[in-house]
Design brief:
The protein is mostly helical and 273 residues long. The protein has a domain at 103-218: Cytochrome P450-Terp, domain 2 (Cytochrome p450-Terp, domain 2, Orthogonal Bundle). 62% of the residues lie in helices and 3% in strands. It has a 3-stranded antiparallel sheet. It is globular and about 60 Å long.
């Protein structure tokens, strides 16, 4: 009977050593490698350039925190309910990362990736990218599909993260086909939609992560990784300036009873129309 094997290229421990990616954690990595670089290496098994590290770091910063979002509120309320469980509060916030919040990073990256993968070769100039983008927007409109990352609920005129991320990508030679296609969509979509929408910074992050060669299946994981840092900050602020109790009491004191029979009558009446 053969011995069981569980192969890994990541962390290993002995009674006196810890290795990570085949290197000594204490001697080779700690104090020499940033957390951003380590995450890139653990996911891709490749050593990134300094430019790739800067680009990834900018992407993570772009998603870390946006104030009292549902993910932050969920973390704070859970912390209020169970102050002995920081892990529960963090988990509550991260579990709220879905299709409406944080998910656009993954959705946009995968949407662009599906288009880029079908191209015989990337276009050579902006004009050619615009033609590809017109086809993409036209097909999405015909199929009544939303283009992920196009538009933002708050930033109607400009998402300030977008030009900053694109500038860093160009500076660090990390600007690739996914960002090029997304920028082109930003230029041409008004021709078909009749109105101009901003390029959502979270969508730009998805395009940038795809250009960094990170696995499409894990793009939301990077958004969650970034938001974990933000949630830690939210919990620290809840300790300094608590608001969760006020939020809870506001809902509790303004709750209004609705008779089930009245509610059902209204719902059934709506179905008849």
């Amino acid at each position: 009977m053969s011995e069981l094997r569980f192969p890994t290229s990541l962390g290993m421990s002995t009674t006196s050593t810890i290795t990570l990616l085949g290197e000594d954690l204490a001697g080779d990595l700690m104090g020499k490698v940033s957390l951003t670089e380590l995450v890139y290496r653990m996911v891709t098994l490749r050593v990134p350039t300094s430019g790739q590290v800067r680009m990834l770091d900018a992407c993570l910063l772009a998603l870390a925190d946006h104030g009292f979002t549902p993910t932050a509120i969920a973390a704070r309320l859970t912390f209020l309910s169970a102050p002995d469980s920081v892990q529960g509060a963090m988990a509550a916030g991260l579990l709220g990362g879905g299709s409406r919040f944080l998910g656009v990073t993954e959705d946009c990256g995968q949407f662009l990736g599906a288009v880029v993968d079908k191209l015989p070769e990337p276009p050579a100039d902006d004009g050619s990218w615009d033609e590809v983008a017109r086809t993409v927007v036209r097909e999405a409109r015909a199929g009544k599909r939303i283009i992920p990352g196009l538009g933002h609920p708050v930033h109607k005129e400009l998402d300030p993260r977008t030009p900053a991320l694109i500038a860093i990508a160009r500076e660090e030679d990390c600007y690739g086909p996914h960002l090029a296609l997304f920028e082109a969509i930003g230029r041409v979509h008004e021709e078909f939609l009749g109105r101009r929408l901003v390029l959502n910074g979270a969508g730009v992050v998805g395009a940038a992560l795809a250009d960094l060669g990170l696995p499409m299946e894990l793009l939301r994981g990077f958004a969650l990784f970034a938001r974990a840092a933000g949630l830690l900050g939210q919990l620290a602020e809840e300790l300094r300036m608590p608001v969760a109790m006020d939020a809870y009491l506001m809902v509790e004191k303004n709750a209004e009873y609705v008779d089930p029979a009245t509610l059902l009558e209204g719902l059934e009446g709506g179905d008849d129309e």
